[in-house]
Design a protein that fits this description.
Elements lengths: L1 E5 L2 E2 L11 E4 L4 E8 L21 E8 L3 E5 L18 E5 L2 E5 L27 E2 L2 E2 L14 E2 L37 E3 L6 E3 L38 E7 L9 E5 L2 E6 L3 E4 L1
Antiparallel strand pairs: 1-2, 1-3, 4-5, 4-14, 5-11, 6-7, 6-17, 7-8, 9-10, 12-13, 14-16, 15-16
């Protein structure tokens, strides 16, 4: 069964397809490439010393069978940066419908040198980077996303091998760098994917830095760990995203921001929503 929609409204009944009109196959399951990215972890903070970078949000990339009816999309927010303590974990991003339930796990918060109880990076989709204080050397958080199976990506945060600095948060591609006593740890690289038509690095780990620094611009990036005032907000992780892409020429679903890349339709969700099939 096919219906004709214009700007989301059913205008079936003899109208011909043209311009922004598109036929939709109603209630017909289909296969799509799906990218699911969780919120990045917040970077650690200590006003008197360095801290660990936040872990990138867990990432899923694979082909899924999208069933008829409603598929619910929940977008994970980036974790808050620490305020003289560890950063907070990012929120999970969830895609759930009649025949699937995929969870991308929020990135782990970065450790802080504020106290011995805060030096470890937190576990998450990718783990947060560690910090250190006195004789306490922190351990990077564990990347939990790969434990969910194939097509799931995340890595561990870096460790603090000696006192005086912080380690990088894990990225969806590479683990965070350790602090070795010479250089502060950089965040692990994220996966660069062109699902939306433009190459974007998703879920990069946050750096450990002594100043404002910069952080990954793509969805799911971890915030940097720093002694800089957390009010600058660059130690907050970036929000997640869901992108669903499939071959045309028939539009299979409604929901999210709809674009067309070549002969493929792309539904992008940057906030909670529903994909209607």
């Amino acid at each position: 069964m096919r219906k004709l929609y214009h700007n989301g409204f059913d205008v079936s009944g003899g109208l011909e397809q043209s311009g922004s009109f598109a036929y939709v196959a109603v209630g017909v399951p289909f296969e799509a490439e799906v990218l699911i990215v969780a919120g990045g972890g917040g970077g650690g903070h200590h006003s008197g010393g360095e801290a660990g970078g936040g872990g990138g949000g867990g990432l899923f990339l694979g082909t899924l069978n999208i069933g008829s009816g409603e598929t619910n999309i929940t977008i994970g927010e980036g974790g808050n940066g620490g305020d003289n303590n560890q950063g907070s974990n990012g929120g999970d991003t969830v895609v759930s419908g009649s025949n699937l339930n995929i969870v991308a796990i929020g990135g782990g918060g970065g450790g802080s040198s504020d106290s011995a109880s805060d030096v470890n990076g937190l576990d998450g989709g990718s783990g947060g980077g560690a910090s250190s204080v006195g004789g306490s050397l922190g351990t990077g958080g564990t990347g939990l996303q790969p434990l969910s199976g194939s097509n799931h990506f995340g890595t561990d945060g870096g460790d603090s091998l000696t006192t005086g600095g912080g380690a990088g948060g894990g990225g969806s591609l590479n683990s965070g760098e350790d602090y070795d006593g010479v250089n502060l740890g950089s965040g692990g690289a994220g996966k660069t994917i062109s699902t939306s038509g433009t190459p974007i690095e998703y879920s990069r780990g946050g750096d450990s830095t002594t100043g404002g620094g910069s952080m990954g611009t793509g969805p799911g990036a971890g915030g940097f760990g720093s002694e800089r005032n957390p009010a600058n907000n660059n130690n907050k992780g970036r929000n997640g995203i869901v992108i669903i892409r499939y071959e045309g020429p028939t539009l299979r679903a409604r929901g999210g921001t709809l674009t067309k890349v070549g002969e493929q339709f792309v539904h992008t969700f940057t906030s909670n929503g529903v994909l209607y099939v």
